[in-house]
Amino acid sequence: MTRLTGAAAPPAPRAVSARVSAHRGASVLGELLITAAAVLALFVVWQVWWTDVTGGRAQVAAVVAIETRFPTVPATPTDSAVSPLRTDAPPTVAEVPAGTGFAVVHVPRWGTDHALPVLEGVDARAVLDTGAAGHYPGTALPGAVGNFALAAHRQTYGAAFRRVDELRVGDPIVVETAEAWLVYRVTADRVVAPEEVSVIAPVPGAPGEAATARMITFTTCHPLWSTAQRWVTHGELAGWLPRSAGAPAELGEVA
Question: Which of 59-73, 121-135, 138-152, 214-228 has the lowest mean pLDDT?
Fold first, then answer.
């Protein structure tokens, strides 16, 4: 009797067909997964990097466009001993249509050349995704009694408020308007739930109470890469200078 070797018997035609189909299915699935991974990687690059590039360009262009409409001022900060900050009521700022730029925010702790455009409204696509800080409609305008409240992205789209957690009590925040330099000083920060809208009330945290101070508030997402909470930074007006006096010394203040 002939004995078989260790080789397996040839598979039946139906079994061969099933294996080929399974192999092809696995190949197709593998190709789809690779394609999906590539698309996801491109999306991450676009979301994390490219939107920052385009947002940064838009920030610079918006600042230039806003400042072009302002009167020219000396390029170097004025000595505060020569031009001390005024503490009377600063010039008023007129309301503007949604999406319009009307002020520039300078945060020396983020760099003495750091500047952010301020646009009316907090619509994501029209305002925040352009790299600007958006002014909450209904809150005070720059320099006015009440709460000049701003929102901005902390990551992607220019990440205007990326370094908000670096601000310290006493840090200057300089708001440039058509008629004045407004110097605010940071007073506090906190983390709140997204629905805690009282932080942008005229008196932060006390809705319904009449305001007496001239405040500024930054709001942005917290922690990074999450919308679970909001980081809030408050400040109060320390004083102001007319544009004719030149930029305030605080603009060049480095911690």
Answer: 59-73
Catalytic residues: 153, 221
Q: How far is CA 232 from the centre of its chain?
A: 12
Measured CA to CA in angstroms, residue 35 lies from 32, 39, 41, 48 at distances of 5, 6, 10, 20
CA distances from residue 68 to 64, 99, 137 in whole angstroms, order as listed = 6, 17, 24
CA–CA distance from 101 to each of 6, 65, 128, 211 (Å)? 82, 8, 12, 26
Contact (CB, 8 A) for 237 and 143: yes
Domain covering 51-252 in this structure, CATH number: 2.40.260.10
Instruction: State pLDDT tens for residues 97-113.
Output: 999 999 999 999 999 88
